[in-house]
Amino acid sequence: MAVKIQIRDLNFFYGPAQALKSINMDIYENKITALIGPSGCGKTTLLRLMNRMSDLVPDTRVEGQVLIDGQDIFEKSVDVVNLRKKVGMVFQQPNPFPKTIFENVAYGPRMLGTNDKQALSKIVEESLKKAALWDEVKEMLNKSGMTLSGGQQQRLCIARVLAVNPQIILMDEPCSALDPISTLKIEELMMDLKKEYTVIIVTHNMQQAARVSDYTGFMLLGELVEYAVTREIFNVPKDKRCEDYITGRFG
Amino acid sequence: MSKISDSVLQPGCELRRVYDGFWRYAIYLFGAISFIILLLIALFIFREGYPAFQKIGIWQFISGLRWDVSDQAYGILPMIIGSTYVTIGALLISVPLGIFTAVFLTDVAPQMMRSIIRPAIELLVGIPSVVYGLVGMLMLVPIIRQSGHGSGDSVLAASIVLAVMVLPTIVSITEDSIIAVPNAYREGALSLGATRWQMIWHVVLPAAKSGIIASIVLGMGRAIGETMAMIMVIGNSIIIPDSIFSPARTLTGTLALELKYAAGLHWNALFATGVVLFVFILILNSFGFLMLRGKNK
C-alpha cells in the first residue's frame, strides 16, 4: 500500500497560539482518510496545510514537514499554484462561482491555457460525469451555477476540482450544509473517487466517517490522538479520549 | 398577582398615543422635505428654462452650433461636446486608476498601507473644487503650455483635474463592492491553482461588476456637474474642441460665467441649459443607484 502524504513532526502556530502539535501521519494513496474531532481541534487547519491554503492567513508559522510523494511542500522552491492544482479542495459551503455551470468547470482548464472549445467541452463533460452531475445538468450547462440545489452545487464544485486533474482531493466538511439525500450522493461519489484519487475528508459526522473512510484520525486540542484503520477506531479504540468521543460522551 | 387588564387599560394612555402620533407625522414631514426641495428646484429651473425651449425649439437648442448672445443665437452643442469630452477624458484616467486602487486596497495592500491610503483618498473628497482648479491652473496648465500645444487651457488639463476629483467616488464604491464578494469565491479560485492575479481578474472583478459599473456611472454624474475647477483650466472658448490640447467650454461653465449679466431670452437659455444638465444627471444617477440596488438582491 503506497503512502501518498507523509506528515512529519508538524507544528503549526497562529501567532503565539499553537494549533497543531507534532503531528505524524501517513496518508495512503487511493484511500479515504477521515479526520474527526471536536470543533477547534485543528482538523481543518491540518487539512488546509496540505495544499497550503494556510498561507492565506497572515501571521502563521509552520514547523516540520508535509511530504507529498516524498516532496516537502513547504520547501522554498515549491510553487504553491502548481501544488494546488494537484491537491484540490472542496469547501464546507458549496462555493460555485457566479458563472454558468459550464464556465465553473471550465475555469481551471482555462487557467491552465486550454481555450479550445471542443477540448473544454470534453473536459467539462468528463468532469461532470465523474462528479455524478452530468445527467442532471447536461441540458442546462449555460445556466448559472448558483441556480442549482445545495447538493448539486457541491457536486459542481467537485467537478470543478476534477477538471484540473488533481491527485489528492481535500474535503472540508463537504456535507455539513446538505440534506441527507444529497449527503448520500456525495458519499457514493467519494467511494467512486478513491479509485482514482486520494481523498481526505474532515467531518463532524461520525457515522459519515465510519461509512465512507478507510482510515480515521481522531484529533483533540491540536494533537492526533489516535490514527488507525476506521474499523479499529470505531470498534476497539485504544485511547480513552477517543473512545469517549466516539461513544458520544463528549464533543 | 395583578391582572393584565390593570396595566393595559390604565387611564392616561390616550394622551401618550396622541403625542406618539404627533411625532410620527413630524418625522414623515422631515423625511418629505428633502424630496420637496428637489421638486421645487426642478420646478424652478423648468419654469425659467421653458420659454427658451418654446422660442428656440428643443432640438435647435440642443443641436445648435452657435452660442452668440449679441446675435441671440443659442445652441449648446459645443458645450455638450465639451462636457462630454472632459467627462470621457476624466473617466479614461480615473476608471482604471480607481479600480486598480480599490483592488490594491482590498486584496493586495498590507494592513499598514491600507490604513494610510484609504483615508488619504477619502480626504480628496473634502478638498474644495476651487483648490483643484487652482492647482490645475498653476501646475498642470503651464506644463501643457510648455509642451508646445497652445495656451495650456485645454480639454486635457480639465480631464486630468476632473479625474482626480471623481477618483474617490470610483474607489470607494468599487472597494465596497469588492469587499462584498464572498471570500469563498477567492478560496475557490486559489484552491484550483489560480494565481492571485487570475483570482482577481476572473472571479473577484466579475463578481463585483454591477458595483463597479455603478461607481463609474455615479462618477460620471459628478464629472458632468463639476463647474468651478473646469472654468479655471479649460479656457472656456465656445468651440468644438478638435484635439485634447484645444480649449472648450462645459455646460456648467456657461451657466456660471454668464448668469450674472443675463436677461430675457439669454436668461431663459441658461436655465434651459440647466434643465438639460438636470435631466442628464438625474438619468445617470438613477441608473447608477439601480445598478447598486440590483447588486444587493
Task: Kindly report the average pLDDT value of chain B.
Answer: 90
Classify the helix fraction of chain B into a percent range. Answer: over 70%
Tally the beta strands of chain B.
2
CATH architecture annotation name of chain B: Orthogonal Bundle
Helix and strand element order of chain B: HHHEEHHHHHHHHHH
Number of strands of chain A: 10
Gyration radius of chain B, in Å: 25 Å
The helix/strand series of chain A, from N terminus to C terminus, equals: EEEHEEHEHHHHEHEHEEHH
Q: How many separate domains of chain B?
A: 1
**Judging from the principal axes of the Cα atoms, what is the shape of chain A?**
globular
Alpha plus pi helix count of chain B = 13
Low-confidence stretches of chain B: none
CATH architecture of chain A: 3-Layer(aba) Sandwich
Structural class of chain B: mainly alpha
Low-confidence stretches of chain A: none
CATH fold type of chain A: Rossmann fold
End-to-end Cα distance of chain A, whole Å, is 33 Å
Distance between the termini of chain B: 50 Å
